Structures are given as structure tokens and as C-alpha cells.
Fold each of these.
Amino acid sequence: MVSNDLNIFLIFLSAMMVNNILLIRFIALCSFFGVSNSIKTCVGMGMAVIFVMVMATGVSWPVYHFVLVPLDLVYLRTAAFILTIATFVQLEEMFIRRTFPPLYRAMGIYLPLIVVNCAVLAAAFLCIDYKLGFVKSMVYTVGVSCGYFVAIVMFAAIREVVDYAPVPRLFKGHPIAFITASLMSLAFLGFKGLFGL
Amino acid sequence: MTETGFSSLLKELTKGFLKENPILVIMLGLCATLACSTSATDALGMGLAFSFVMLGSNVVVASIRKLVPSQVRIPVFITVISTFVTIVDYTLKAYFPALSQSLGVFVPLIVVNCIVMGRAEAFSSKNTVMASLMDGIGMGVGFTFIITLIGAIREAIGNGSLFGHQVMPALYQPFVILILPPGAFLVIGFLMALHRKVMITFYKEDG
């Protein structure tokens, strides 16, 4: 688990590898199995997630600590976070379309999808639950989103190969994808011993 | 789906069980399924919490479906869902602190559980309150059934117990891997293959 007295580098590694959001914590699996058919889509999706997640934590942390806590409205955080994030992603989408058209073409279509990606909301919640400060929250979020990127791109690469493998008929498609994910998760479990977190 | 006869209501109720099972067929809501199934107790708790939210949001969305302009429907649905999620979250914290502790962040995350949103958007925004109620119960039962099954398999093989009671003989060496994260993927992979086998055998459907 992440605690506030870990140093920044360890928070990053722990968020990215040891507690990998997809393979160890099981958050955002719908997109993991949904879009992971080709590496190209996954790179776009992964980039968009990094971008949105960092922005979302950057907004929701101040909302929680400067609005909800002083007004004693902590019980509204679920509703408040999801509405803040949804609004913010819309604004970002418009902003990117205006100012950086190439970037928009690369990841634009994934932005609306990400609003309902649990990973974004989960990162915002976890920063609050772990009682991290603002800087550490941002580092943690960058770590989580990089972990997402690494895992989904690797998974897509493996799936492209598995498509050509002689798989029993009953296991074709999704069942074999889950078993692939299981083996990857096993590999990521090894990082736990490596860093001793 | 506009007919409101008894048989069609029954169909809405039972389809969530096998034919349109939210986890195995629609493949939504996987996060909670995998993360909260390390023991049968946790799995059942998650299943019931989810069913309550599903039921509540389906009924409310269906009853306000004619009042909400379609441009703002998504934020409205999200607000409805998050209200029910907050109710569940605080109820669990107050009456079942241990369960709430072990489910952790996954209770507030029901709000982005795609099944709830998906059913609100695809079903209850277009159907009567009664049909949506049945759909909600069916989806809830289907989800609870599968998640409890996964939880029971993982707990029995990985820990030798069921709902906290020892079921395996004392000499049994548990396969701890099944209660670790990789075990969740493994069990659901095999269940999906089994489900496909059942569908092919009994419903003559080629999956």
C-alpha cells in the first residue's frame, strides 16, 4: 500500500509496477479487454488516459480539500468528483481541438470514453484515501497512468500474437485473453518482492 | 420489448441469468467482479450492493425517462446512480464496517460500473418502470450469482474455506495463487469457456 512517508520515487514505482492498476488492482478492466485488439489503438488510449488522469486528479484534489472538506460536504464526493471530471474532460477536448489539432487527431476519439473509465475516478479516490499531499498525489497519478499505459500496450502486443495460435475452440477470444492476463498479472506480482513494498 | 404481458416480464427477469449475463456475456463490470471475489462473503456483499444500486437506478431512470431531455440524459443518469451509490457506501460503513473495509474503493466505484450506466442508457431509458424493475432484478441476480460463484471457487481452492468456514480436509494444501490477483483472471477465463460450452449444448448457440 502507498503511505505518505514513502519518498516520491517509491510512490511512482509502487503505483506503476507493484500495484499496477490493471493487473493487480483490477480497475478499468472494461477498456483493457475492450480496446486491446491492436497496439496502435492502445497507444492512443494509453496516452489519453495519462493525460486525462493527471488533469482529473489535479482538479479533484483541490475540489475535495478546498471545497468539500471546509463545507462539510464530504459525503458528496462521489457525485462531485464524477461531475467535475466529466465537465473537465469536455473542456479539455474542446481546448485540444482548438490548440493542438495533431494531438486531437491522435487521441481525440478516446477522450469521451475515458470519462466513464473507472481508472480516472479511482486514482482521484485513492489519493484521498491514502491522505496524500498535492505533489505526492500528482506523482502517484502519473505512476498509475504510466502503469496503465505499459500494461495495456503489452497486453495488446501479446493478443496480436495469440490470435494466430491454435487455441481450443471453447477458449477462443475472450477466455484465452483472460488467461493471458492472468499470466501477465503473475509476472507483475514478482515486482512486489523486487521493491519490498 | 414494448409488450407488458407477464411472459415478457418473466423474460426480462431471467435473461440476466445466462443468456445476457452481465459478466460473462456483456463483459461489463469486470473490475468489481475480479477485485471483490477473493472470498465468498466479500463477493456476496458486493453482489448485493451492486443489485441495490442497479434496481434503484433502473426504476428511477425509467420513471423520469419522459421528463429528461436527451441532450442532458447522461449527467442526469450519473447523478441518479451516484445518489444510490452514496446511500450504499454510507449504509455499509455504518452497519458492516468490516465488509466496507475489505471492499474499499470498489463501493464508490460502482458509480462508474459500466453495467449500471449501460442498462440505464440501453434499457430503462426506453422501457416501462415495471420492465426496468425486472431487468434490474435479473441483472442484479445474474451478477450476484456469478461473482459469488467466482468468490466461492477462489476461496475454496485458494484458502480451503467457504464463507469463512473450513470445508477442505485439514491436510489440504491451499493453492494460494487463486486468491492472489492472477487467480481471478484464471477463474473467470475458465468460467467463460464453461459458459460457452453450456450455451452451445443447451441453447444450440455458437458463441
Note: Chain B touches chain A through 41 residues (CB under 8 Å).
Amino acid sequence: MQHNQFNEFEIPPPFVNIVRAVIRNRKPIIVGIILLVIIFGAFFQIKPEELGVVTRYGKYSRTVEPGLNLKIPFLETVYKVPVERQQKLEFGFRTTGTGPAQSTYTKTNTKAESLMLTGDLNLADVEWVVQYRIDNAYNFLFKVRDPENSLRDISEASMRQVVGDRTVNEVLTVGRTEVASSAQAMIQRLSNEYSLGVKIDQVVLQDVNPPDAVKAAFNAVNQAQQEKETLINEAKSAYNKVIPKARGQALETIQKAEGYALERVNNAQGEVARFNDLYKEYIKAPEVTRRRIYLETMNKVLPQLGNKIITDKNGSNVLPLLQMPMQNTNTPKEN
Amino acid sequence: MTKLKLIITGVVLILLLIAITGTVYIVNEQEQVVITQFGRPVGDAVTKPGIHFKVPLIQKVNVFDKRYLEWDGDPNQVPTKDKKFIFVDTYARWQITDPLQFYKRLTNERGAQSRLDDILDGETRDYIANNNIEETVRNSNRTPVTTDSISEPSSDSLIRILVGREKIEQMILKTANERAADLGIVILDFKIKRLNYVEEVRDQVYKRMTSERFRIADKFRSEGQGEASKINGEKERELKSIQSVAFKKSEEIKGRADATAAAIYADAYNQSATSKNLYTFLKSMETFEKTFDEKTSIILSADSEVYKFLKSMQ
């Protein structure tokens, strides 16, 4: 019967021989298998990034380091906790894949996580990442049920409390790093309160935006701010164009006045010196000098004159005899 | 005979197995246990992990979690004191501290969750409805950091609050714990996880935000214009001041020079009557020289000295 079966399954002859041998020596083989199971159940490996927490019939027994370790099979249980691995929780987005150069994200169904009220009752869309490590494997395993979900809850509550205490302007611009560090401190504080056994390495704010519906208005504010700067700069440049020039011109005016003053005084001194010299001579022979000067002047002046009309003593009759040649020939008096 | 022996051995073995599994039970690190006999709790709760024993068959093991357990509130629509509709999502962490009492009052976790729903949702509703919206959003009266160096739009200040979120959470926690005192549980923490305007008002909020932003933008623009005008005014003032000061100074300098010159002249010309005469004479001569040119016509009397002079020239 058995023989027929083997033939039916077309098992080649060497295997048939092995199976026969196994059946013949089944007792030692069964003992061997049991031994193997016990050995495999007794040895276990802890990876370099992990710690192993061992419980003996349910009760915490010891924590073991990375490497090959031993336990009592069936009675002891091992929990492997990746204490060295940095883990992260994402809020407002989810990484869907990590390529060699670029990661892909999705933002479907995460609006409720990221949309939050700011202290001045505006709405802001805040996306962030919490990076953490398990630093107390015992607490992480036995103190809180679903520690990761607890950490999510804590993170959301903390971020909202921090953002709720700040203006929308702060959250969007100046306060970003401060928001992240405050949130990190609060998440760590609550994690300790809950005995989560985690250490928050970093809270990183990703995109922080006003909601889509009001983005345009926020941009308008930025634009207006730029316009303001431009207007002020233009005015300043106009100021700078005019004032230094005016300062220079003022100096010029004053210098000119000083020049005038010098000239005026020097001229006066010169003229007076000349007058004094003349006066010295004049008082010696006043009449003669006077006459001389008078005639000298006339000598200089008269040849330049145009019409010269001579009248008689009474000033009524024009004497024709001494009509001086006229330079302005077309004056009406000639006719 | 051997067949009977085999059966007896089998039965004994099975009985032994039942006895062992029914007697020995393991309490895990994160568990605590209440032993019931025909549904009635027997003895104290077992909170220490490890191997424990009980009477087989008639006693039953009821396992409860010892860890902090989650409670997630239903997102609730609640009106605030200032009649703003918001939705609030809360969470809490709680722990079974007295498993015996817990078993008696709530039987299992599902019972506890529904009791917590009643207590916490109710308290949340009460406290939120008794406070203005700011009190639940904000936590402290901190002074916001402002950006711009020139001036900041007035809307960037935060109005004063009296209570704040953490205090409200603590009050809810306290009242809820009082109400849950006989349930064998302790609520460790209660927090508002999410809080937002309800969908229907959100559009209005966006409208308000938009108008607020435009107002800020207008303010920036008018500030810019104001600042520019100020600078422009300063420029004009500076310009006039520079020019007029220069004019004043130059006139003063000129005036002083004129005075000095006049004094010099006067000193010389006023020496005596003769010097005065000489000066007058010289001046008139000078005037002749300066005022007479080829366009001037002169009428000379025949007996004037000039005429004689002219005649002599001819």
C-alpha cells in the first residue's frame, strides 16, 4: 500500500529510501525536532538599533542589549523596542513615497489636522513634523496603551495651544522657530506626564500658510508693505538729491558775499588812499588843481559826445558856426 | 484491560490539564485582574504581574488594562458665550485605578468609554459655552512679537483674556474627576485637541480675515504715503532753511563790508571843509565821465567855459 502511494506520487527512488529511513528511526527524529524547537525558542537576536525587554510569565524580568540572547522558551516573552531609531509623526501631510531625490506627499484628508485658530482668531494652515525616539522601553511598552496615538494627540493639542497664543503674523513670519521650540517643550512635558517613554528630538514646522481663501489678501499686505518701502525710499532719494546741492549753493552764496565784502573794503581803502594823496596836493593850490581836473575831465568826455549844440548867452539862438560833425546822422535834429 | 487502562490514563491527563489551566493564570505587566465567582468579585484585585492561582471552573479571570487608556471625544459643535459656533475635538487619558470598583460600576471598557463620553462631553460643552471664544483659543496674555520697524497694524495686538485654555482644561478635568470618583477610574489629563470654526461660519471668517488684511494693506500704503510726505516736507523746510540762512549770512557780510567802506570814505572825506569840496568836485567829474557817451546831446552856452575849451581845441 505504502509502496503504491510513493509510486503514485512518482517520488524518485533515493527519496523513497530516505522516507523509509525516517519512518524507521522516528523516535530520535521527534526528540531532535523537539530539541530544535527549544533551541530556536531559547535563542533570539536583538538588532543594533533595538533593546529587548524580557518578561517571565508576564512579569518584567530584564532588558537585554543588542546581540544574541537567551531566554526560557514558552515562559519568557521578548518585546523588541527600536530605541535608537528616530521616528517621526507628520501633521497636515503624509509622505507617500521617498525617491532618491524627491519625496512625494499627499495632503488629502489632513486639512483638519493643519487648520487651526490663531490668537487673534484668524486661521492658519500649519504643517509640522515631530521627530522622536523611544528613550524608556519599559514605559513605552507598559505604561500607555497605543503610545504613538497618544503622542499624536499630545502633538496636536500642544501645537494648537502654542499657535492659539500667537498672532497670525507671528505664526506666519517672525515666530516660526519660537513656535516650533515652544511646541517641542510642551510635547516633551506632556510626554513625561503621560510616561510615554519618548524623547522629542525636534519639532519642525513645514509649510505655514494662510488658508487658500485668504492667501490673496495676505499677499496684498506684503505688496502694500513693499509699496510703503518704495514710497519712503523715493522720498528719501528726492531729499538726498536736493539737500546736499542746496548746502553747496548756500556755501557759494556766502563765499560770494565774503568776496564782495573784501572787494568793497579794499576798494574803499584804495580810493581813499588816492583821494588822500590828491588832497595833500590840492590844499597846496586848490584853484589850479580844480581847474586842471575839470578840464582834464572835459577833455576826456567831450570827444565821445554825440550832438553838441551851442547857444548864445541867453540860450535862445542857435549858432550855426560851430556844428560839430555828428555821428548819429539820422537824428531828427539835423534837419 | 489495556484498553481500559489507556482510557483512564487519558481521562486523568485531561483532568489534570483542566486543573492546571483552570488554576494557574498569568497577569501581564500591563494588566490587572479581578477574580469573579459566579459573576461576583472575590477578594482584592490582582495588580502584580506574574503567575497567580485560582479555583478552577467556578472562578473566572477578568482582565483589565493597567496602562493609561485613551478617550477620544466626539467633535462637538458648541456655541461660545459670545455666540460663536465652534467645533471642539477633545481627548483624555484615564486609568483604571480601582479594578474592583470599576468592574462593579462599569463592567468593561466600553461601559467606561460611554460614561466618559457623558461626563467629558457635557463638561466641555458647559465650560466652552460659559466662556468667550478667546478664552478657549488662547492660553496666556503674552505680548506678541511684531515685525515691522516703523509701526505695526493695530490688529496685531491680542485682547486680554481672563481664564485661558489650560485653566479651562484643568477645570473640566477637576469636575469630571469629581463626577467619576466612584467609578474606579482617574482621568489623568484632558486636552482640547482641535478647535475650529464650524464649516458654515468659516466663509464669513475668511471674509473678515480678507477685509482685515486689506485694511492692514491700506494702512501700510497710507503709512508709506505719510512717511513720504513727511520726508518731502522735511526736504522743503531744510531747503528753505539752508537757502534763507545763506542769504541772511551773505547780506550780513555785505552789510558789514558796506559799513566799513562807508566809514573809511567818511573818515577821508570829512577831514575838513576843503576835503569835502574836493570830494564833491571829484564826484561830479566822475559823474560826467560815467554818464556822458556818444548818445548824449549837449547844449553849450557860448560863454561857458566848456565852449571856450572846445573852441580852443579847434
Note: Residues 199-269 of chain B form the longest helix (71 residues).
Amino acid sequence: MFKIFNPNKIFSVTSKAPKYILFIFVIVISIGLMEALIFSPEDYKQSHSVRIMYVHVPAAWISLSIFSFITLLSLSGFIFKNKNFFLIAKSLAPSGLVFNIIALVTGSIWGKPTWGTWWAWDARITSMLILVLFYLMYLIAWRIFEDKENVSKITTFISLVGIINVPIIKYSVDWWNTLHQPASINILSKSTIHSSMLFPLMIMTAAFALFSLLIFLMKYNTELIKIKNKGLDRL
Amino acid sequence: MINELISMNGYGSYVWSAFGFTILSFSTLYLVTRSQYLKEKNKFVAKFGALDPKKSEAAKSQSIIKEILSNNQSI
């Protein structure tokens, strides 16, 4: 069923794809940066500080999506007994962690002019900080445990516990009284953000998604070569 | 125009540092990932070169090994 995920078959694609993804990423991020820093309007309340949204929000979205993917892939690895799912999940984690850190740092920078503080133990900020800890635990587990059977069990356990935090992050602004405003972009109902701000936000999200795809492919290729390196030792 | 873009009504330091941090993080992650990839690939090429001809022929029958040894995967 999952022959399409056979590393031997897909390496010819994954090894050539990064240079094309990098090329598209450079074009999309250039358009996104011009839109975000020059063409998009300032906010009537937050003035130019609203521009931080164009890096903060996509970074948070992508880090949450990557963690959800990691959990789904880890679980699928167990259900379908496919080790490649674990390899894909492992290769996704570094970019997820970096996006999570970007969301926290840029959020902190945005907090100073908006709320008058760099940090607050607000429900959303705290739950995002907890997600960083889960990313770290996940990546450290891959480093310290040698046995492949054990490491896939441990990392799946970490991702399953960590995924509980994802809906908490999403709905924290509705469940608790926080400094964050409720979601401005809704898939099921009308978004409250103006199209002049929505467009650059979507472009930047596309650029960030392309960058995470680029890093994922580079990591995945590295992991495959590592496996083949071990294979040469056994020859 | 340029001054306005830099100062952004007094919010320039916040906006530019947020974008600067993002670009710095992207560059670092890209360079670290690339160096790990190249290190692993060079290790593989060196190991493959040290194999005796019989073993290297056997290994070369795998398409993935041919791909790793080819030079068209520059990133």
C-alpha cells in the first residue's frame, strides 16, 4: 500500500527537489517581504508594529502543523509498520522547532510595543513554550536512544502527549482571558482581517511552508544517506 | 521615504528586529542542515571509494547509491 514511500524509489526525486524548492522560496519570500514591509497598510491602532504579524503568525501556524504531522506520521508508522514514516517525522522536527522559537521570539518583540511587556505568562504564550519543550524532548530522544524499536516508541509517546497541547494553543484565546486577541482568520466563518493584510499574510505563510519543505527534504536526504552509510559498513 | 521605512513611526526597531531574527534563524537552519548533508555525503563517497571492486559493483546495483554518488543533487 505504501510502496510509494519506499526510500529507494523516492530518493531520485527528493535529492533533486531542494534546488527547485529553494528557487521558488526565494521568489515567494521576496514578494512576501515587499508586501509585508512596504505595500501593506499600517494598523489604525498598532501602527507599523502590526507588520510583525507577517512573521509571527505564519511561524506559529507552521510549527503547530508540523507537530500535528509528526504525531500523525508516528502513529501511522505503528499502525502500518512502516519505518519510513518515523524517518519523515524525524526530518520534519528541526524546522518545526525553529518555527516555534521564531513565533515565541517575534511574539515577545511584538508584545513590548503592544502590551508594554516582553513576556507574560499568558495561556497562549505558555502553551507555545510547552510546545518548544515537546519539540526538544522529541529531538533529544532521537539523539540519545540507539535502539530503533525503542526510539520509535518513545518519540511516538512524546508526540502523542504533546499533541494534547495543540488544541489548547488553538483555543486558549477562547477558553481563558488572555492578552492575545481571538482568531482573526476563520476557515468556517468570515475572517475579520482586511484583504490588504490577508494577502501578505498568505504569501508569507506560503514562503514559510516552502522553507520548511526545503529543510525537510535536506534532512530526509541526510537521514537516507546515513542509513546507506551504515549499509556500506555491513558489506 | 527610506527614513520612513527604517523608522516606521518609532516602531522600526521592533519590526526590523523581528524580521532580522527570522531571517537569521532561516539562514542558520539552512546552513546547518546543508553542512550535515554534505558531511554525510562526503563520508559516504569516501567509504564507497575504499570498497573493493566486487563489493562496490554489488552496491552500485542499488539505484539510491547511484543517486548519492551522482553530482546532480546540489543544494
Note: DSSP finds four helices and no strands in chain B.
